[in-house]
Design a protein that fits this description.
The chain has one domain. It is built from two helices and eight strands; from the N terminus they run H-H-E-E-E-E-E-E-E-E. With 174 residues, it is mostly beta strands.
Amino acid sequence: MRKMIWWSPILLAILVGGALRAWPQNSSEQQSPEKQESACRLDFSLNELEDGKKINVRHYSMNLTGGAYKELKIGTRINVETETGKFQYLDVGTSIHSRIDGKPDWPILDVTAEISNFAVPDQGARGGANPLLRQMVISGSTLLLFDKPMVIGAVDDPNSKRQYQLEVTATKIK
């Protein structure tokens, strides 16, 4: 029994020392290789076409890592009166929500873009206190290809011969 008591602290020290050396030193070591996320830059182009010819382009960019949704918003916040006489705030402009999911060798990009603006008088704007808003939503998921422009989606404007395309180019950040 005395021999076992004498060896117990030495055995315990060996086990604890080995466990501490095997313990990850930072958060990147804690993730398995297939769970490690890489960062990338997403460059969005909102292309406006009329009769197939590009007449306007707006550019937006964001840096993104896998897993969490990121959001980019540009626009104006307006208040409108509801039926009950209260006011509600609406965001008018461009909002892009993005997330990268999947595995590092098979990343999936989820994107939703909401584009809204005030209707001009010849597009059916009504008189009154509240403005008439036009809204387009383009949403999609695709296999993420780096350094190559990809069209996420396109919508036609019902009041004109215009089409809007959302395009994205992803670049790995080293």
